[in-house]
Each structure stands twice: as structure tokens, then as C-alpha cells.
Predict the 3D structure of the following.
Amino acid sequence: MSTSTPALTNPIHTRASTWGRVRKRFLNPALAHGIMLVTVFFIMFPVLYALLLATQTPQEYYRLQLIPGNQLLVNAQQAWNQVNLGRLLLNTTYIAVVVALGKIALSIIGAFAFVYFDFKGKTFFFLMILITHMLPLPVRIVPTFELIDALGWINTFNGLTIPFFASATGILLFRQLYQTIPPALADAARIDGAGPLQFLWAIVLPISRTNVAALFLIEFIYMWNQYLWPLLIANADRTRVVQIGLKQLVATEAAVEWHYVMAGTIIAAIPPLIVLVILQRSLIEGMSLYEEK
Amino acid sequence: MQTRFPNRFLPYLLLAPSVIVVLIFFVIPSVQSLYLSFYRVAPLGNRKIFVGMQNFTRLFEDPGYLNSISVSVKFAGFVVLVGLAASLGVAVVANQRYRGFGVYRTMLIWPYALSPAIAGLIWAMMMDPSFGIAARFLRQLTGMRFSYLTNSTHALLFVAIAATWKMMGYNIIFFLAGLQGLPQELLEAAAIDGANAWKRFWRIAFPLLSPTTFFLFIMNTLYAFFQVFGLIHITTEGGPGRATDILVFKLYRDGFVGMNTGFASAQSIVLLIMVAALTIAQFHYVGSKVFYR
């Protein structure tokens, strides 16, 4: 800012120079970058080191060698065979995809009903779906387990997927979106003689695209990372998921063989990371949706 | 207000799948949890004896349960206080309108895709007394022998660090978004009035940031109580002794290892009361405060 005579110091000048100071905020940019880089390093280091260790022999990582070894395939193969990782990945992918798609479908039609219809008990049903937020699994774990047992769903994919199909998050997400669709669209559809289902299919579904991607990301990761429920009801070879497989990998009497365990861990972490990388753009808008219960 | 389609049955049909799942797998089992919490159930067979509040009085006289409360509170306290304070610190320092923020966000968000179990395994490897790089670095630096498998304090610290690490990136991203959304005029005005950076932060930025802080407080609390079962199960299994026996882990042991159904259900109800209180606080707070976004 060039200096000027006091007479010329009008409000705009004052404002501009203050802006310069305020923009500096609390610290200077170089330090900000420095702190961010240190933080990123702290957050990334354990995973990078896990990756490194997965390539090494026990001798190499006992020496704390910081260059990669050539054992990655050997370690991965060992982990793969020890707990039948291929089967576990297939099982987990199946339940994550089925639950994500099921939740999306149920949420879209549910939200559509709430926004485009008047019906008796609307508030009641809405509250009932919202209340699922207050009922995480530990709150209802014994009766739910007994129910799955009574249904004969222990060690089945039904037991791993169907209890997860309802989604308050999903219904809220799509309801919020549908309330912003211009009413003229639905009016036009009605005048043209289109029924509600035609309107849903032709207009509402295409508009839902971004939210579908965001919800798929959240729910895929959520299901991929399930632990307690699969441990209780699906701990058999046919239905086991990859998280429980990792537990089998470390549950040895002898010392843990970290090179195998880390190879298995990296393999188990890759699918949700891929989904995150592909779909993360869709989340930039609705960040509060990162958490699912 | 959206246009409504005149149809009597369709909305019920569209809502039916969600409502059925919510009823069968959420509402009814929760009510059954409450019912079972007043009964003693014979381990074999279906004999149930009504015992009134006895499960609850036993619960709060059980040293094991009181220990679990203490462990959970310490654990959650660490995850919430240390996690949020560190994240806010980083966010404040890093809060600049520089280029490349998007890159940092990408580098910070990906632990979101890792399961708590995987976070636990990676930190168990880092902290392994004989092989772990972090444990050995610590011994070189301070002479302390960090042993999460034998030392109670170390064990609790270890699971708390692993759990906090997984949430750090998520917390920083939310704090940064919150800070960038603050009204510039206020900070500007304070700067003109001569408030220094320290005062501008504590007197203006921090109070304005309270919706973000509160949101993260709730999210991190729920995470620390309900989502870390896998982390505990795959690493310490509640030990050594009962040093990391958080509430959900004890519930799992009593309900599914000890088969003490009524006693476990009483624990479920205590958790339900806790979630309900948090949820109500959240609605109350969000409803009564203005969002400065």
C-alpha cells in the first residue's frame, strides 16, 4: 500500500490496509505450510511404515532398515493363504456393495415419499426413522442376535446385510435435496399426465446422482469396516469378513509376524481407499455426512 | 413447499421397506433390551425370572463395571480432548488462504477409510516392544520401556493414541472449514481496535467456532464409546488385566462370552441413556444457537 497524505486517507484505503493485516491471520504462510507438512507426516508415517514393513524380512525390520525389501509378494502370499484372504475380500466386497446399494434405494424411495406426498402418520414415521440414530448396535445387541438366530440367519449373508438396510442419514440427505427441486418440475409432470413413479424415474433420480455417490462412499466404507456384528454372527469360513480375518492373522500363540500381518492389513485397507479416492469429490459439499452410525 | 402427488397408498408402499427394517432390527430389539434388563435369564434354556432393578444395582456394585466406566471415560477423554485440542491447534496455525489446501485435505482425509481395527494393528506394530519403531525410538530417547501388553497405563495410552490418530485428519478438516467460514468483518474490526492475534482467537474466533467444536465433540464422543470395539478386540482384548476393558467390550464379554443376557441388557440400557442424552443435547444446542456459516 502506497503512502498518502492524511487528507487522502479515505475509508477505502484504511479498509484495504487492514485487510492486508487481517489476511495474515495468526501466522505467516511458510510456517502454516510447515505445520501442515509435519501434521501430514505424522498422519501418514504409520501407514507408510506399515507398507515398508510389508516388503521386508524380520531381520530387515528388526534392524530398522528404512529402504524397502523385496519380500512384498512373499509376505502378501503368506497372509493371503494363511486366512484365505481372497474369500474374505470377496465376502466383504459383496456385503459392502449390497448394503450401500440397498440403503441408497430405500433412502431414495423413502425420501421421495416424505417430500412428494401427504399421508397419515407422516411425522410419526419420520421420527421413527430418525430414532435409529439413537440406537447403535450395542444398545440392542442381545435381542438382535437372538432374532438373527431365530431366523436361521447365523453365518448367512442375509444376517450380514439386511439389518443394515435402513438409513436415517440417507433419507435425510435425499429429503434435503428433494426439497430444493423447483416445484414447477413436479407441476409440469402432473400436467403432462406423468405419475409419481415416472417423475421419480425421469427427473428425481438423475438429480440424485451426486448424493448417490456420496452415500455409496460413506456406506461402503462403513460396511467394509464392520467388526462387532460380523464377529458375532458370521465367524465361519463361508461368511467371514476381512477385518475378522486380520484378527486371525494376529491371534497366534507365538510372537506376531508383523511382516505377514502388515501385508494383510495393507491388502484389507486398499478397497475402501480406492472407493474414497474415486468418489471423494462428491463429499466436498456435504461434509457433515462423513459419519454414519 | 413441494407439489404433492395425490395418492393414498403409494407413500406407504415406498416407506414400507425402511419402516419394516427399522421396526424389526431397531425398535423391537431395543424394547426387548429394556425388557430383558429386568430379568435374569438362565444360561441354558428359556427360563426367565423377573428381578426388577436387580441387574442395575448389581451393575453399579460390580467392580468390573465401575472399572469399565472409568476406562471408557479416560479413553474418551483422551480421544476428545487431546484429539480436538491438537486438531484445532493445527487448523488455526494452518488457516491461510493458500493454494494447495485441496491437496492437504486429500492427504489428511484418507485415514477416514481405515477401520479402527486396522488403526489398532498399525499402531500395535509401531509400538511393539521389541520390533516397533516408535517404541524403540522412545526407549532411545527417554529410556522408557513402552509395553502395551503388560503395563496398564501404557495399554490405555496405546489404544487412545491409535484411536485419536485415526480421527485427526477428519477433525482438522472440519476445523479448517469452520475457520474459513468465519465472518471476516468481525476479525477485521477487532484488528482495527488493536486486539492481538491471541485475543482475536479466544474472544472472537473460538466462540464463533463453537458449532463446529460442538459437532466434533459429539462425533468424537460417539466414536470413542461405540466405534472402537474392533481396535480393542484386535489388539489388547481389554487387557492387560482389565486396563482397556471399555464399556462395549465388557458388554460383549458379559453377553456373548459369559452368556449373561439380562446383565448385558442392563448395560445396553445404560448405553442407550447415554446416547439419548448426547443426541438430545445435540438437537437442543443446534436448535438454540445460530449457525455462523
